[in-house]
TrEMBL record:
It comes from the Eukaryota. This is Uncharacterized protein. The lineage of its organism: Eukaryota, Fungi, Fungi incertae sedis, Zoopagomycota, Kickxellomycotina.
Length: 336
C-alpha cells in the first residue's frame, strides 16, 4: 500500500530565507530561448539563491532550430574561468555546484576538477548533477560520456536528476515498473549518490501519465526514503524542461534541507514543489501554443521544423514566474 508523504505543514510559497545558497552553474547557454543556464538561473535567483555561471557552449539558440550559430567551449576555457574565480577568492563561498550539458569528455573532466577543488574548499558542498545525455531512446552526446558520468561524476555528486533514458544508461536497468525505477535509484545510491531523482518515467501500467521516482539515502544509517509522484503527460513538445526542473529541485531542496534537521523527507517535498511549478509552466506554454496557432507536427523531425514552431516550444518562464514562487498546482509524493 502506498502512503502519501505528509507535507501539509509546508506551504507552496517560497521561503528561501530558510536556506539561501550560492551556486556555481556549469552548463550550456543560448542567446534566445530557455535551455541550460538560461533555464536554470532565473528560477534559482527568484527562489532566493545567488548564481554564478560558466557556459560550456554559447549558441544563438538551441539546436532544435533549423540553424544555430556559436561556439562549443573547450575544457581549457572552462578551467581558465574557474581559475579566475580562484585568483580572486571568489570560489570560497559556493555551497552548491550545478552541472548540466557538457557535450564531450574533456568538459566532463573539467567539471570533475572543479568539483574536487570546491569540495576541498568546502567539504559540505552540494553537487547536483543533471547528466544530460539524451531522451526517449536517443543519445545526443558521445557514448563514452555514459561511463564518465557513471564512474567519475556520480561518486562526487550529492544529487542526480536523470530522465528515464539517462537513468537506464547509467544503471543498465530497463525501467518499465516502479520496482525497476526503485532498483535504478538503489544502483545510483551504490555509486555514491545520496539523493536520486528520476525525473520522468513512462511505465508499462500507465497511460497518459508520467512518474517521478525519487530516493533519499541516509548514508550513516542506511535508511532510505523512496517515493513517486504521478503527473499528467501533456500533448506537445517542450524544450528546456530537464534543465528547468533540475534547478527548481535544487533550489527547493537547498531551502528546505536545514528545516528537516537531518530527517529524511526534504527531497520528496522539494520534488513536490518543483513538479507543481513545472506542470503549471508547461500548461501555460501549451495554452500559448494553442492561442497562437502553433501546431506541433510529429511528422517533422528535429532540425526541419519551422523556426516559429520551435520558438513556441520554449517554456513560458517569465510570463509565468509567479508559478515559480507560488505554484497553484499540488502533487503528493507517495511512499513506495
Amino acid at each position: 500500500m502506498h502512503n502519501s508523504i505528509d507535507s501539509s505543514s509546508n506551504s507552496n510559497t517560497a521561503s528561501a530565507s530558510a536556506g539561501s545558497a550560492r551556486v556555481l552553474s556549469i552548463q550550456s547557454h543560448v542567446v534566445s530561448g530557455y535551455v541550460g543556464n538560461r533555464a536554470a538561473t532565473f528560477p534559482l535567483q527568484l527562489l532566493g539563491h545567488e548564481v554564478d555561471v560558466i557556459n560550456t557552449v554559447q549558441f544563438s539558440n538551441h539546436t532544435g532550430y533549423n540553424q544555430f550559430r556559436g561556439q562549443r567551449f573547450p575544457a581549457d576555457h572552462i578551467l581558465d574561468l574557474f581559475a579566475g574565480l580562484q585568483a580572486n577568492q571568489l570560489d570560497t563561498g559556493y555551497t552548491h555546484l550545478l552541472a548540466g550539458y557538457m557535450g564531450n569528455s574533456e568538459n566532463v573532466r573539467a567539471v570533475e576538477t572543479i568539483a574536487r577543488q570546491l569540495l576541498q574548499t568546502n567539504p559540505g558542498l552540494q553537487f547536483v548533477l543533471d547528466p544530460v545525455m539524451g531522451d526517449e531512446g536517443a543519445l545526443y552526446v558521445p557514448r563514452e560520456l555514459v561511463a564518465l558520468y557513471r564512474d567519475v561524476l556520480c561518486p562526487l555528486a550529492s544529487m542526480v536528476t536523470p530522465n528515464q533514458f539517462e537513468a537506464e544508461l547509467l544503471t543498465g536497468i530497463t525501467i518499465g515498473t516502479l520496482d525497476d525505477a526503485r532498483s535504478a535509484c538503489n544502483r545510483l545510491h551504490e555509486l555514491g549518490v545520496p539523493n536520486v531523482v528520476i525525473t520522468s518515467s513512462e511505465l508499462k501500467s500507465s497511460k497518459g501519465t508520467l512518474h517521478l521516482v525519487g530516493s533519499e539515502l541516509n548514508a550513516t544509517s542506511g535508511e532510505k526514503h523512496q517515493f513517486a509522484i504521478t503527473f499528467p503527460r501533456l500533448d506537445g513538445y517542450f524544450t528546456g524542461t530537464g534543465d528547468f526542473f533540475a534547478a527548481l529541485t535544487m533550489a527547493r531542496h537547498a531551502s528546505l534541507v536545514a528545516s528537516y534537521g537531518g530527517r529524511l523527507g526534504a527531497l520528496a517535498r522539494a520534488c513536490e514543489l518543483a513538479t507543481a511549478t513545472q506542470a503549471g509552466i508547461m500548461e501555460a506554454t501549451q495554452r500559448h501554443q494553442q492561442a497562437t496557432g502553433i501546431a506541433v507536427s510529429d511528422s517533422l523531425v528535429r532540425g526541419t521544423r519551422p523556426s516559429g514552431m520551435v520558438r513556441g516550444f520554449e517554456l513560458r518562464i517569465i510570463p509565468s514566474q509567479s508559478l515559480i514562487t507560488s505554484p497553484t498546482k499540488s502533487f503528493a509524493a507517495e511512499i513506495i
